[in-house]
Protein backbone atom coordinates (compact mmCIF):
# COMPACT_ATOMS: atom_id res chain seq x y z
CA UNK A 1 0.00 0.00 0.00
CA UNK A 2 2.79 2.39 0.86
CA UNK A 3 4.43 1.78 -2.54
CA UNK A 4 1.12 2.39 -4.34
CA UNK A 5 0.52 5.66 -2.48
CA UNK A 6 3.80 7.13 -3.72
CA UNK A 7 3.48 9.82 -6.38
CA UNK A 8 5.86 9.70 -9.31
CA UNK A 9 7.65 13.01 -9.77
CA UNK A 10 7.16 14.54 -13.23
CA UNK A 11 8.85 17.87 -12.48
CA UNK A 12 11.34 19.35 -10.04
CA UNK A 13 11.50 22.68 -8.25
CA UNK A 14 14.96 24.28 -8.23
CA UNK A 15 15.50 26.57 -5.25
CA UNK A 16 18.64 28.43 -6.28
CA UNK A 17 19.93 30.98 -3.76
CA UNK A 18 17.24 31.71 -1.18
CA UNK A 19 17.95 35.38 -0.42
CA UNK A 20 16.09 38.67 -0.13
CA UNK A 21 14.50 40.32 -3.16
CA UNK A 22 17.23 42.96 -3.43
CA UNK A 23 19.91 40.27 -3.38
CA UNK A 24 18.01 38.25 -5.98
CA UNK A 25 17.86 41.28 -8.30
CA UNK A 26 21.57 41.89 -7.74
CA UNK A 27 22.41 38.23 -8.48
CA UNK A 28 20.21 38.28 -11.57
CA UNK A 29 21.97 41.39 -12.90
CA UNK A 30 25.42 40.02 -12.04
CA UNK A 31 24.75 36.67 -13.71
CA UNK A 32 23.37 38.37 -16.80
CA UNK A 33 26.48 40.56 -17.12
CA UNK A 34 28.82 37.62 -16.50
CA UNK A 35 26.99 35.47 -19.05
CA UNK A 36 27.31 38.24 -21.63
CA UNK A 37 31.04 38.44 -20.86
CA UNK A 38 31.38 34.65 -21.23
CA UNK A 39 29.72 34.61 -24.65
CA UNK A 40 31.65 37.63 -25.93
CA UNK A 41 35.07 36.50 -24.63
CA UNK A 42 34.83 32.93 -25.88
CA UNK A 43 33.31 33.89 -29.24
CA UNK A 44 36.19 36.33 -29.65
CA UNK A 45 38.73 33.53 -29.05
CA UNK A 46 36.95 31.24 -31.54
CA UNK A 47 36.79 34.02 -34.15
CA UNK A 48 40.45 34.96 -33.75
CA UNK A 49 41.66 31.37 -34.00
CA UNK A 50 39.53 30.81 -37.11
CA UNK A 51 40.47 34.07 -38.84
CA UNK A 52 44.17 34.39 -38.04
CA UNK A 53 46.59 32.06 -39.82
CA UNK A 54 49.18 32.67 -37.10
CA UNK A 55 46.85 30.91 -34.64
CA UNK A 56 46.38 27.78 -36.76
CA UNK A 57 48.42 25.64 -34.37
CA UNK A 58 47.42 22.71 -32.14
CA UNK A 59 47.58 24.83 -28.98
CA UNK A 60 45.16 27.46 -30.26
CA UNK A 61 42.94 24.83 -31.85
CA UNK A 62 42.56 23.26 -28.40
CA UNK A 63 41.92 26.69 -26.87
CA UNK A 64 39.12 27.29 -29.40
CA UNK A 65 37.60 23.91 -28.49
CA UNK A 66 37.81 24.89 -24.84
CA UNK A 67 35.94 28.09 -25.70
CA UNK A 68 33.20 26.06 -27.38
CA UNK A 69 32.84 24.01 -24.21
CA UNK A 70 32.90 27.20 -22.13
CA UNK A 71 29.97 28.55 -24.15
CA UNK A 72 27.91 25.35 -23.99
CA UNK A 73 28.26 24.83 -20.23
CA UNK A 74 26.98 28.23 -19.00
CA UNK A 75 24.34 28.28 -21.76
CA UNK A 76 23.04 25.02 -20.32
CA UNK A 77 22.87 26.43 -16.78
CA UNK A 78 22.68 30.24 -16.68
CA UNK A 79 19.42 31.02 -18.58
CA UNK A 80 17.42 28.77 -16.27
CA UNK A 81 19.38 30.09 -13.28
CA UNK A 82 18.35 33.64 -14.22
CA UNK A 83 14.72 32.54 -14.08
CA UNK A 84 15.33 30.86 -10.72
CA UNK A 85 16.81 33.99 -9.16
CA UNK A 86 14.18 36.28 -10.65
CA UNK A 87 11.26 34.16 -9.40
CA UNK A 88 12.84 32.84 -6.19
CA UNK A 89 12.84 29.31 -7.58
CA UNK A 90 11.35 27.70 -10.67
CA UNK A 91 10.05 24.36 -11.91
CA UNK A 92 11.76 22.22 -14.50
CA UNK A 93 10.25 19.15 -16.14
CA UNK A 94 11.80 15.75 -15.57
CA UNK A 95 12.78 15.62 -19.26
CA UNK A 96 14.24 19.14 -19.07
CA UNK A 97 16.21 18.17 -15.98
CA UNK A 98 17.66 15.11 -17.68
CA UNK A 99 18.54 17.16 -20.79
CA UNK A 100 20.28 19.79 -18.66
CA UNK A 101 22.27 17.17 -16.78
CA UNK A 102 23.17 15.39 -20.05
CA UNK A 103 24.72 18.50 -21.62
CA UNK A 104 26.34 19.51 -18.31
CA UNK A 105 27.97 16.10 -17.84
CA UNK A 106 29.09 16.00 -21.49
CA UNK A 107 30.79 19.41 -21.46
CA UNK A 108 32.44 18.84 -18.08
CA UNK A 109 33.79 15.46 -19.16
CA UNK A 110 35.04 16.90 -22.45
CA UNK A 111 36.81 19.73 -20.65
CA UNK A 112 38.59 17.25 -18.35
CA UNK A 113 39.88 15.27 -21.33
CA UNK A 114 40.74 18.36 -23.37
CA UNK A 115 42.78 19.95 -20.58
CA UNK A 116 44.70 16.68 -20.31
CA UNK A 117 45.40 16.71 -24.05
CA UNK A 118 46.54 20.33 -23.82
CA UNK A 119 49.02 19.42 -21.09
CA UNK A 120 50.41 16.64 -23.32
CA UNK A 121 50.65 19.16 -26.17
CA UNK A 122 52.76 21.46 -23.96
CA UNK A 123 54.87 18.48 -22.88
CA UNK A 124 55.69 17.56 -26.49
CA UNK A 125 56.35 21.20 -27.43
CA UNK A 126 58.88 21.72 -24.62
CA UNK A 127 60.37 18.28 -24.03
CA UNK A 128 60.42 17.06 -27.63
CA UNK A 129 60.34 20.21 -29.79
CA UNK A 130 62.12 18.72 -32.83
CA UNK A 131 59.37 16.14 -33.31
CA UNK A 132 56.46 18.38 -32.28
CA UNK A 133 55.18 19.01 -35.82
CA UNK A 134 55.31 15.31 -36.74
CA UNK A 135 53.60 14.21 -33.49
CA UNK A 136 50.91 16.87 -33.02
CA UNK A 137 49.58 16.91 -36.57
CA UNK A 138 46.39 18.75 -37.44
CA UNK A 139 44.66 15.51 -38.42
CA UNK A 140 45.53 13.87 -35.11
CA UNK A 141 44.29 16.86 -33.11
CA UNK A 142 40.94 16.93 -34.93
CA UNK A 143 40.49 13.16 -34.56
CA UNK A 144 41.25 13.26 -30.83
CA UNK A 145 38.79 16.11 -30.22
CA UNK A 146 36.04 14.27 -32.15
CA UNK A 147 36.75 11.07 -30.19
CA UNK A 148 36.55 13.01 -26.91
CA UNK A 149 33.18 14.54 -27.85
CA UNK A 150 31.72 11.17 -28.86
CA UNK A 151 33.12 9.48 -25.75
CA UNK A 152 31.55 12.11 -23.49
CA UNK A 153 28.21 12.04 -25.34
CA UNK A 154 28.12 8.25 -25.04
CA UNK A 155 29.15 8.18 -21.38
CA UNK A 156 26.54 10.82 -20.52
CA UNK A 157 23.87 8.82 -22.34
CA UNK A 158 24.74 5.69 -20.34
CA UNK A 159 24.58 7.66 -17.12
CA UNK A 160 21.19 9.16 -18.05
CA UNK A 161 19.87 5.61 -18.48
CA UNK A 162 21.16 4.79 -15.00
CA UNK A 163 19.45 7.88 -13.53
CA UNK A 164 16.19 6.92 -15.25
CA UNK A 165 16.34 3.72 -13.21
CA UNK A 166 16.03 5.75 -10.00
CA UNK A 167 12.65 6.40 -8.43
CA UNK A 168 11.64 9.94 -7.53
CA UNK A 169 8.55 9.78 -5.38
CA UNK A 170 8.71 13.09 -3.53
CA UNK A 171 9.62 15.61 -2.38
CA UNK A 172 10.54 17.14 -5.74
CA UNK A 173 12.51 20.12 -4.37
CA UNK A 174 16.15 20.32 -5.51
CA UNK A 175 18.15 22.62 -3.24
CA UNK A 176 20.62 23.54 -5.95
CA UNK A 177 21.21 25.81 -8.94
CA UNK A 178 20.66 23.21 -11.65
CA UNK A 179 20.06 19.49 -12.16
CA UNK A 180 23.27 17.95 -10.92
CA UNK A 181 23.99 14.39 -9.90
CA UNK A 182 24.45 14.82 -6.15
CA UNK A 183 21.19 16.80 -5.58
CA UNK A 184 19.27 14.26 -7.69
CA UNK A 185 20.66 11.42 -5.60
CA UNK A 186 19.64 13.28 -2.43
CA UNK A 187 15.93 13.38 -3.34
CA UNK A 188 15.72 9.89 -4.85
CA UNK A 189 13.80 7.26 -2.90
CA UNK A 190 15.86 4.46 -4.48
CA UNK A 191 19.06 2.96 -3.17
CA UNK A 192 21.72 5.26 -4.62
CA UNK A 193 24.74 3.31 -3.36
CA UNK A 194 25.34 1.55 -6.73
CA UNK A 195 25.20 4.93 -8.48
CA UNK A 196 27.69 6.40 -6.03
CA UNK A 197 30.07 3.55 -6.83
CA UNK A 198 29.61 4.22 -10.54
CA UNK A 199 30.27 7.91 -9.95
CA UNK A 200 33.60 7.13 -8.31
CA UNK A 201 34.48 4.75 -11.15
CA UNK A 202 33.69 7.49 -13.66
CA UNK A 203 35.74 9.96 -11.63
CA UNK A 204 38.73 7.65 -12.10
CA UNK A 205 38.36 7.91 -15.89
CA UNK A 206 37.51 11.60 -16.14
CA UNK A 207 39.27 13.10 -13.09
CA UNK A 208 41.86 10.88 -11.40
CA UNK A 209 43.67 9.52 -14.47
CA UNK A 210 43.61 12.87 -16.37
CA UNK A 211 44.89 14.75 -13.32
CA UNK A 212 47.70 12.20 -12.92
CA UNK A 213 48.66 12.63 -16.58
CA UNK A 214 48.66 16.41 -16.13
CA UNK A 215 50.84 16.20 -13.01
CA UNK A 216 53.32 13.85 -14.71
CA UNK A 217 53.42 16.03 -17.84
CA UNK A 218 54.14 19.18 -15.88
CA UNK A 219 56.70 17.45 -13.69
CA UNK A 220 58.63 16.54 -16.84
CA UNK A 221 58.07 20.03 -18.26
CA UNK A 222 59.44 21.59 -15.07
CA UNK A 223 62.51 19.38 -15.21
CA UNK A 224 63.10 20.27 -18.86
CA UNK A 225 62.71 24.00 -18.15
CA UNK A 226 65.18 23.87 -15.25
CA UNK A 227 67.74 22.19 -17.53
CA UNK A 228 67.56 24.96 -20.14
CA UNK A 229 70.81 26.93 -20.37
CA UNK A 230 69.49 30.52 -20.48
CA UNK A 231 67.00 32.50 -18.44
CA UNK A 232 65.33 33.73 -21.62
CA UNK A 233 64.62 30.16 -22.78
CA UNK A 234 63.24 29.24 -19.37
CA UNK A 235 60.98 32.29 -19.25
CA UNK A 236 59.69 31.67 -22.77
CA UNK A 237 58.96 28.01 -22.04
CA UNK A 238 57.25 28.84 -18.76
CA UNK A 239 55.08 31.53 -20.40
CA UNK A 240 53.69 28.97 -22.85
CA UNK A 241 52.54 26.77 -19.96
CA UNK A 242 51.51 29.25 -17.28
CA UNK A 243 48.10 30.06 -18.78
CA UNK A 244 47.13 26.42 -19.19
CA UNK A 245 48.44 25.51 -15.75
CA UNK A 246 46.35 28.30 -14.19
CA UNK A 247 43.18 27.13 -15.98
CA UNK A 248 43.82 23.49 -15.02
CA UNK A 249 44.43 24.37 -11.37
CA UNK A 250 41.21 26.39 -11.06
CA UNK A 251 39.08 23.84 -12.91
CA UNK A 252 40.27 20.76 -11.05
CA UNK A 253 40.19 22.45 -7.64
CA UNK A 254 36.51 23.28 -8.19
CA UNK A 255 35.61 19.83 -9.51
CA UNK A 256 37.44 17.97 -6.73
CA UNK A 257 35.84 20.20 -4.09
CA UNK A 258 32.33 19.33 -5.29
CA UNK A 259 32.56 15.69 -6.39
CA UNK A 260 35.59 14.02 -4.84
CA UNK A 261 36.27 15.63 -1.46
CA UNK A 262 33.60 14.64 1.11
CA UNK A 263 31.06 17.45 1.43
CA UNK A 264 29.02 16.27 4.42
CA UNK A 265 30.22 19.21 6.51
CA UNK A 266 29.58 21.75 3.75
CA UNK A 267 26.31 23.66 3.71
CA UNK A 268 24.11 23.67 0.62
CA UNK A 269 25.04 27.32 0.01
CA UNK A 270 28.75 26.41 -0.05
CA UNK A 271 28.06 23.68 -2.60
CA UNK A 272 25.98 26.10 -4.66
CA UNK A 273 28.76 28.68 -4.60
CA UNK A 274 31.37 26.12 -5.69
CA UNK A 275 29.07 24.94 -8.49
CA UNK A 276 28.55 28.55 -9.57
CA UNK A 277 32.29 29.10 -9.69
CA UNK A 278 33.06 26.27 -12.12
CA UNK A 279 29.96 26.79 -14.30
CA UNK A 280 30.19 30.60 -14.58
CA UNK A 281 33.46 31.91 -13.17
CA UNK A 282 35.80 29.45 -14.91
CA UNK A 283 34.31 29.91 -18.44
CA UNK A 284 34.57 33.67 -17.89
CA UNK A 285 38.22 33.80 -16.88
CA UNK A 286 39.52 31.19 -19.35
CA UNK A 287 39.55 33.56 -22.36
CA UNK A 288 40.98 36.30 -20.12
CA UNK A 289 43.82 34.07 -18.92
CA UNK A 290 44.68 32.83 -22.41
CA UNK A 291 44.61 36.32 -23.95
CA UNK A 292 46.35 38.20 -21.12
CA UNK A 293 49.95 39.01 -22.12
CA UNK A 294 49.58 36.65 -25.09
CA UNK A 295 51.44 38.25 -27.98
CA UNK A 296 49.85 35.99 -30.60
CA UNK A 297 46.31 36.85 -29.47
CA UNK A 298 47.12 40.58 -29.32
CA UNK A 299 48.65 40.44 -32.78
CA UNK A 300 45.57 38.65 -34.14
CA UNK A 301 43.29 41.31 -32.60
CA UNK A 302 45.35 44.08 -34.21
CA UNK A 303 45.19 42.34 -37.58
CA UNK A 304 41.41 42.01 -37.39
CA UNK A 305 41.00 45.66 -36.35
CA UNK A 306 43.27 46.92 -39.15
CA UNK A 307 41.49 44.71 -41.66
CA UNK A 308 37.97 45.92 -40.95
CA UNK A 309 38.62 49.55 -39.93
Describe this structure in words.
It is a single chain. Helix 2 runs antiparallel to helix 9 and helix 3 runs parallel beside helix 7. Helix content is 76%, strand content 3%. A three-stranded mixed sheet has the order 2-1-3. It starts with 10 loop residues before the first strand and ends with a helix. Mean pLDDT is 84; it is low at 1-6. The chain is built from ten helices and three strands. The chain has helices at residues 21-51, 58-87, 94-127, 132-135, 138-164, 181-187, 193-226, 231-260, 268-291, 295-308; strands spanning 11-14, 90-93, 173-174. It has 309 residues and is mainly α.
The percentage helix is over 70%
N-to-C SSE series?
EHHEHHHEHHHHH
* Poorly predicted tracts of residues: 1-6
Shape: globular
Structural class: mainly alpha
Number of helices: 10
End-to-end Cα distance, whole Å, is 74 Å
Instruction: Let me know the number of strands.
Output: 3
Features:
10 helices; mainly alpha; 309 residues; globular; 3 strands; three-stranded mixed β-sheet; 3% strand
SSE inventory with pairings:
Layout: E1 11-14, H1 21-51, H2 58-87, E2 90-93, H3 94-127, H4 132-135, H5 138-164, E3 173-174, H6 181-187, H7 193-226, H8 231-260, H9 268-291, H10 295-308
Parallel strand pairs: 1-3
Antiparallel strand pairs: 1-2
Helix pairs in contact: 1-2, 1-9, 1-10, 2-3, 2-9, 3-5, 3-7, 3-8, 7-8, 8-9
Question: In summary, what is this structure?
Answer:
The protein is mainly alpha-helical and 309 residues long. The protein contains 10 helices and 3 strands. The longest helix has 34 residues.
